[in-house]
Structure formats: structure tokens, C-alpha cells
Amino acid sequence: MPIAPRLLPLLALLAALATLALPSAAAAIETGTPAWLVNGQVLRAGPGAAYDVTGELGDEARIQVDRCTYRWCQVHAGGARGWVSRDNVNFGQHPRGPLTGPRLDYPEGATVCFFTGRNYTGDHLCQPPGTVVHDLLLFGIDDRFASLRIEGAGSVTVCRDRDFSSYCERIIESQPVLPGFLENAISSYRVH
Q1: Are 137 and 189 in contact (CB under 8 A)?
Q2: Could you give all domains of the chain from N- to C-terminal order, each with its CATH number?
């Protein structure tokens, strides 16, 4: 059925309005990895203290991390954008520094076996106490483990990113399915 010529201007107007609405909807999409800035800090124009100051964020600020180098992260929050020290960024669920919280008497001395499948299935890797792996990507097995079994009285610290950064958790009992933040997402670990 052909479109009536008198409707063409109305259709053109509707198409133009729909196009105008797209950029504002796209701008509402949040980018970056959610994290916390533990202590207030100035934002820099580049990854280092020699760069100009571009702004400032307060203590325990919720931020989005765009990317990180070894020592600096590019972040944005509330219209401010810049680089901050990576030591001051926490990817956990709370705005805490890496060495805060209670000192618990975790068991030590067990062998820990990591499995690629849930319920202790698939390929596995067993590690003795004292094993520390800073980056599983170097071994070609990054982000592959879905469950882990602790054999004996011991524990393991597992983290989402290399060098024990991002979200970390101390696990003290076997896990047939790793928690959501860690399933198929472990990049570094320490067997205790």
C-alpha cells in the first residue's frame, strides 16, 4: 500500500526526532569497570605525577576505570576524567584498601586443585602450599577455572586480575562452583 503524500512530512519529522534521541540514550550507557577510589586524589592528564592536574575526586568515590598501566589507571566519575595511582583503586565491593579488615586465622597447608568445569570436572591443575602465581595468562590458562577443591586444611587467595588486583577472595573450603565474580575469571592466586 503506497504512503499518502501528505504523510511524508510527518514521517520525516518522526525519523529526525528518533535520530536526535539516539545520542542521548547512547550517552547514558556507563563505560568502564566499576571500582572505588579509596582515598581522595587529584586527577592527572596522563599516567604520572608529572602530568597536569585535571580535577579531583574525594574519599571513597565510586569510579569507572577505563584502563590501567602497571602503576596508573585512567578513570572517570561525575564528569571528571583523568589518571590516578593504581594503589588507590579498589575493584572490590567496598571502598577499602588492600590491607584493611580483620586478621583471621585461616588454615594453611593444603593442596588446592583448580578445575575447568563445574563440580570438579574437566582439566585440572593441583598446586602445593606456598605456590604463588601472579599472572595465569603467562601459562595460557587465564580465566579458565570454574571450581576448586581444597585437599586438607588450607586455603587459597584468588583474584580476577594479575598481580592480585581487582576483586580478590580468600577461599577456605572446596567450591563446586566458584562465586560469580570468580567463575572463569581467575588470573592470579596464592595457595596457603
Answers
A1: no
A2: 33-90 (2.30.30.40), 111-191 (2.60.20.10)
Q: What is the rounded CA–CA span in Å between residue 143 and residue 103?
A: 28
pLDDT in tens, 97-147: 554 445 556 667 789 999 999 999 999 999 998 888 989 988 899 999 999
pTM, two decimals, is 0.50
pLDDT digits (tens, 9 = 90+) for 66-103: 888 878 999 998 888 999 988 888 877 666 655 444 55
Half-sphere exposure (CA, 13 Å, Cβ side) for 59?
A: 2
Supply φ then ψ for residue 136, to 5 degrees.
-65, -20
Q: How far is the first Cα of the chain from the last one, in angstroms, to the nearest whole number?
A: 74
The 3-state DSSP class for residue 112 equals: strand
